[in-house]
Amino acid sequence: MPHDGTHPPSAATTVARAAAAPVEFLGRRALAAVTQIGAATLLFATTLRWVWRGLTAPRVRLGRPAIITQLVRIGARSVFIVSLVSACVGLILAFQLAPPLDQFGQKELVANIIVIAVLRELGPLIAAIVLTGFAGASIAAEIGTMVVNEEVEALEAHALDPVRFLVVPRVVASIVSMTVLAVISDVVAVLAALGIAMVALEIPYATFVSNMLDQAKPVDFTTGLFKGTVFGMLIGLIACVNGLRVSGGAAGVGRATTGTVVQCVVAIVIADLAFTAVFYALKLV
Length: 285
Known about the structure:
The protein is an all-alpha fold and 285 residues long. The protein has one domain (64-281). It is 83% helix and 0% strand. It contains 9 helices and no strands. It has helices at 11-56, 64-75, 79-102, 110-148, 151-157, 162-199, 205-215, 218-244, 249-281. α3 (79-102) packs antiparallel against α4, α4 (110-148) runs parallel beside α8 and α8 (218-244) runs antiparallel to α9 (249-281). The longest helix has 46 residues, at 11-56. It starts with 10 loop residues before the first helix and ends with a helix.
């Protein structure tokens, strides 16, 4: 027996603790997820309030220079990498779909499948994932560094709302940029597939374009565009929430950056699944 009078845990206690460990882990994860969703919801409500006041109250300014700066930083600088990845995806789809369709003598239907896949899903999804790594992590790191350097506290000490001056420009820029990038991703992926279809797959230009226009409907484009807008909102909110909640110095900034990328990707995929299910139930897909 130990000298301090304590007793070692019994075998039953050890087994009970081992059995409870997974439950505790899942509970902590669920609580963290609920906390994160709640923080993002409150931040979104506050952002909407400031946007509404900026549009309706003459004395409240949204900070157009700050929004333009973030549009350039988040959107314009992402165009090249989004276009590159989208073009590669368009080429991959064309190469992968052509052989099985050719077995049935329907190789020209590559255009039908690609245009639907890109407009409804891959265009906005690719742009969102690229923007997450390109801009989402950067937003979290930037705001987190401001928190560590007590710049956010300085704003609050001067009676300036950090949401108005830090969050609103970044969320608005993320939404607008993601909407435009979704369109760019759609166009580039389809054009890349068209080019490789003409050069390597021997599909005539007229046949590809005709099949594409026959298959694609305006609702395919609008549903994809709606997804892109929501994805942009998720990226901006999650990045800002993680940035504002940074603690622990430089290590906390690193954790916020990593968490932003992971959470954004998970949120985007789950939102994509939810919207696809709703659109399917409404017979929009």
